[in-house]
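Let us practice reading a record.
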Amino acid sequence: MIYILNKYKYFFLILVIAGCKKTLDLKPEDQISDASFWKTPAHFELAANNFYYGLQQVPQYIDNNSDISFGGGTDPATNADNRSMSNGSYLPSASSPLWDNAYTQIRGINYLLQKAPESNLGTTIDRWVGEALFFRAYNYWKLVESFGGVPKIDKVLDVTSKELYIPRASQSEIIDFILDDLDSASIKLPKQSMLTSDEMGRVTQGAALALRARAALYQGTWAKYHGEADAAKYISIAIDAGEKVVTSGEYALYTDKGADSYKYLFILQGDDSKEVLLAYRYYANRAVHNWTRFLWFNYMVPTKNLADMYLATDGLPIDKSPLFQGYNTLISEFQNRDPRMAMTFIVPGTTIFFEGGLLQPTFPGFSGSNATHTGYMIRKFLDETLAATQFQGAYDFKEFRYGEVLLILAEALYEKNGSISDADLDRTINVLRSRVTMPALTNAQVTANGLNMLNEIRRERTVELAFEGFRRDDLRRWKTAETVLPQALRGVKFVGTEYQQKYPSLNIGTDIQVDGNGFIVAESAGSRQFLPKHYLDPLPLQQIQLSKGTLTQNPGW
């Protein structure tokens, strides 16, 4: 099959083909043959280095596949896949970079795991075996969260291997495989505190436990809300893994910037902080990205769905809080709100670091190439360096962070028994709230105000992790996507507000669309759908064709 047969290149070795006379020495002097490799721990480390390229890079437009973000900008093609996923218009594709890249990585990983016992290096290579196991789990995680069950390949195949045509394992079987790999990996990997300065960014026990918690919570809640088996088992595994991260003492929230720490966590200041468990690393003048400039041009903008989730500063939802100031001015809805809102959205009129080192007051645009489409703009991930304005962003993408682990633990504890103690809230969600000086979440507060604890835990997860790529998966595992995603994507209130006064030339119905209450409509409900088939993505058609009938498509596709 194509995911096995078309990916034989490795960065570190080129196989030497035999067949010439023994008297000829054709060993290339600038390459390492497979026979010469796998002799020392350094060789295994070199091989493991390649797996880091498979980590999530800066998440361009990643939450545009959900309800909390909308894709705009001057290059709609870059947003097409995620936007079509958001509105349910996407179709099966012939190929999938996710599929191809994951199985390419898995083959290289399996090769290292095959060579490890053959090398007779024993425990001296345990760390690199642990890294390989982590990355095999990571790549299968990326596959399972998109496709559900996939073929489980746990050894190196060649063109004659019968496993080239095995059927898909079930989703739970792949999750079990992931959890087993991570359990084995965590034993072999070092703790975060054991890393030298040169090793910062390598996989640790904490990263393995965090992925174990993430995958187990996903499967546990998927099973619970989709009517499948063993929900309690997976939820307990998520709790166990999360507890181990928390009690390890290796990690803490980033607080170096005081009340502004949440903003700075996601740019250069937060790199290598105690909150980061694992990140895709960038380096000034060597490996850089252009994420800040893309965000300037509104390739990913927040929606009203997200804006309305932020609590008022009294800890109450805006429909219950007397502190909410409404929508009549450019800044009124941002007043008296969870500080994370102003660190995730650009509050109109605030100064943002722009090209040339200027601090420039920023206001939304509603028409033209730089239109926000919703009237909201994103602040999260905007770097404040001159290099970032010149296509040279160097901050890391923190894919695994302590804040997520706290949210996993809180949710899993609630899902286990349908309740959570104030003590458990204080060591999970309220740690996050304390960083931004928000009131604590308590059972008494929930009861007194007619709230639902599970909804509040989910709200906290959504606002804390906004634009980090979790929202669509969350809606699918909670089985709420069918209700949430078909709704219109809306923006700021325009009619009868300061926005309409500031932009009097905009024609409603031509330049912008609004709903019956005067809120901007970026995409109408009539243009959006979420069908049962959308809970899993379609397998690449080419893979099904090459499988000789052993791969079946996901239901409905």
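A brief commentary: The two ends are 21 Å apart (CA to CA).
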